[in-house]
Amino acid sequence: MVDGLLDRLGVPASAYTNGNHPVHTPIDGSVIASVQLEPASAVGAKIAQAQQAFEAWRTVPAPRRGELVRLFGEVLREYKADLGELVSVEAGKITQEGLGEVQEMIDICDFAVGLSRQLYGLTIASERPGHHMRESWHPLGVVGVISAFNFPVAVWAWNTTLALVCGNAVVWKPSEKTPLTALACQALFEKALAKFGDAPAGLSQVIIGDRDAGQALVDDPRVPLVSATGSTRMGREVGPRVAARFGRSILELGGNNAMILAPSADLDLAVRAVLFSAVGTAGQRCTTLRRVIVHRSVKDEVVARVKSAYGKVRIGDPREGNLIGPLIDKASYQAMQDALARARDEGGQVFGGERQLAEQYPNAYYVAPAIVEMPGQTEVVRHETFAPILYVMAYDDFDEALRLNNEVPQGLSSCIFTTDLREAERFQSAAGSDCGIANVNIGTSGAEIGGAFGGEKETGGGRESGSDAWKAYMRRQTNTVNYSRELPLAQGIVFD
Ligand code: NAD
């Protein structure tokens, strides 16, 4: 299924045959390759090489560093279809979403190229005569990237393109569920390196490994920044370990994203947004819509329309024009069924959620998306189950809706559908949604790269991608220069 693809993408057969770790496609559950997992002990050597590369790369002018990323963007354009297909095969995304993920990589390349000429610092008025102050931004060092299975290529690109133009080297530990896309990214990056010509060896490396390899990256003092994307469970382990050695981390963890659906909402828009946000990527996006908080006066109509849309959505092989592909594996399916059983115990009425196509694909896990009408925000609703389960809760007044939106441990994405300006503005105000993303009349998923991406509370607080997220990949230095013949002290201190 993948040999031709990997060959075109430049991955040598030796990298994905005869390994000790089988790679499954969620499309039919079959083994499509086997890679060699690198032991934790191999990580140190890669970090050492990246450290050396960093020492050379940090003095390359930033716009020249941007040229490497520009070339990478060109390579990605050329191989978009192949890489997108590999994302579909390995992560189970439908073709449109696989291509969309590669487009997101291209977009962040463009962003980073522009950024390479805009790593601006401030000039600051000094209180002392004959002095000036400024802020300089310098590269940090080796950036460790740990990524999740559900965005197997874009998250790495968000981090790596910014890290590179900022003058850093990168060591990437992708999910053990998606090593092939990682090998393909590395092969494509090497094509860009070849065109660039004189980048230092080992500037961006990949470690095909499991959690132990990830931990070796997390614990290494030569890695000043660890950007880790995955579950809150993982972040709870990674965050304190990095902090214990005074490293920095960018944590992008689980979400539990809600829509407030107000009585004035354009219901046609809202129902379409529910559909894309709740069932896209088979409910396996960090920004997937998991809760609808709907005004009691429109609840029955909304539930009926969403159920009708759910009934029509095509489920099956993600490469064949369906809208819902498979769950990543059996454990995911089991977690979904457990959550649905728990929701029933907590008073929920479940619609959908059954396994589909089991006869055709006995080793793959396709499901009908589930809608669960809940009597309130019970315990199960407060957890992220990484599957297409949409909990629906009714509200009577807007304060209650806001409270429900915020009353979960996670804080990634949120949205409101309303045509009432007061509600929309309150939702985005300091006293409104407590999430990193708060949208009006747009669903919770499908962010653009231009904005800073990330969330609060158990989502980890990190920001990646656009806006000034680049600052996390650099160190800030305050510089004061005395061009006078005196040595005045700050705060007017006299020390003669
Ligand atoms: P996961 O936490 O199981 O694994 C993520 C990565 O962390 C993998 O590479 C894994 O090997 C590594 N890892 C796990 N434990 C580790 C440890 N102790 N030390 C170092 N590395 C460790 O997550 P997953 O199942 O691959 O992905 C789904 C989760 O990711 C969901 O919770 C989803 O919401 C979240 N996610 C968040 C974002 C975001 O931007 N906020 C984006 C995508 C996915």
Task: Give a verbal description of the structure.
The chain has 496 residues and is of the alpha/beta class. The chain is built from 14 helices and 23 strands. The chain has helices at residues 3-9, 43-57, 62-78, 80-91, 95-115, 154-165, 179-196, 211-219, 232-244, 267-279, 296-312, 330-345, 398-406, 421-427, and strands at residues 21-24, 31-35, 123-124, 131-139, 142-146, 169-173, 204-206, 225-229, 248-252, 257-261, 289-295, 349-352, 355-356, 366-367, 370-373, 389-395, 410-411, 413-417, 437-440, 452-453, 456-457, 464-465, 474-482. It has a seven-stranded mixed beta sheet, with helices on both faces. A five-stranded parallel beta sheet has the order 7-6-5-8-9, with helices on both faces. The chain has a three-stranded antiparallel beta sheet with strand order 3-4-23, with no helix packed on it. α6 links the parallel β5 and β6. α4 (80-91) runs antiparallel to α7. The longest helix has 21 residues, at 95-115. The protein is globular, with a radius of gyration of 24 Å. The termini are far apart. The model has no long low-confidence stretch (mean pLDDT 97).
Task: State the secondary-structure class.
Answer: alpha/beta
Give the fraction of residues assigned to helices: 25-40%
| Whole-angstrom Rg | 24 Å
- CA(first)-CA(last) distance: 79 Å
Identify the overall geometry. globular
Mean pLDDT: 97
- The count of strands amounts to 23
Task: Provide the list of bound ligands, each named once.
Answer: nicotinamide-adenine-dinucleotide
